[in-house]
Amino acid sequence: MKGGGIIKRLKFNYDLTAAYSEEINNHSFSVLCIPQDTQRQKIRELDISTDGGAVYQITNDSFLNKKLYGKINAPHKSFGVHISGIADAGIDIFEEYTDYPFGAILYKAQTELTRPGESLTRYHNSFSFKESDGVYDRVLKIMRDIPNVFEYSSGSTRIHETAEGAFTLGKGVCQDYAHIMLSLLRMEHIPARYVVGMMLGEGSSHAWVEALCKGYWYGFDPTNNKLVNDEYIRVSCGRDSSDCPVIKGSFYGGGVQKQSEFVSVEEINEKD
Prior knowledge:
Layout: E1 8-34, E2 41-50, E3 55-60, E4 66-72, E5 76-89, E6 95-96, H1 118-125, H2 135-149, E7 151-152, H3 163-169, E8 171-172, H4 174-187, E9 192-199, E10 206-213, E11 216-221, E12 226-227, E13 232-238, E14 247-253, E15 257-268
Parallel strand pairs: 7-8
Antiparallel strand pairs: 1-4, 1-5, 1-14, 1-15, 2-5, 3-4, 6-11, 9-10, 9-13, 10-11, 11-12
């Protein structure tokens, strides 16, 4: 351990369900909800199951996230993925930077979801950084200020909301906090990536940011205004939320689709 504090052993359960008002068939799906080993965490146990007789495989996507993909040919009106396991979290406080599979320049570029408009540009210009402020200090100041100007409000934004749109509205969810922080960091020319995972005490998946500081990826959670520590389990990362969709797929039929997820993360000890 390189200064990661006390390692927590976390038991996690992730349940994803998609229900359809009409039967579907020839259903191909792709799901990003499998945590994997990193410098921060070690997955000690992992159990995966699916509903509906799905045949699936596990591979890596272009960002090296673990992806479960497969197909169900028979007619069905619901589909579910259930993942549980144990993770040792907080093994380290950062991850070392590598050019593979993408270099840092990819995470410096704004995307359709993070590109700033007038409101975010004006907010960025309000920051006064000292000449002595390093990259880490600037990232920390930005994270700590966002909760002063942005309010958490469940259901206030749509799934494809932009950082500019959410910031102009003044409220949003963890995805919006992360997109806003990404936009600000990229205006500072700091490489930063969007992260999806699970957090101790959360009832759903969570989103935060990792910024590249002196050759290492450090985690920052603007929603909770805290550094990512041993209470977090990372699942996927990318340029923004569009690179980390929990589920994608194609099928025939379906009618109205309703998707739900439930996440539980609890700390355990050796006696549990």
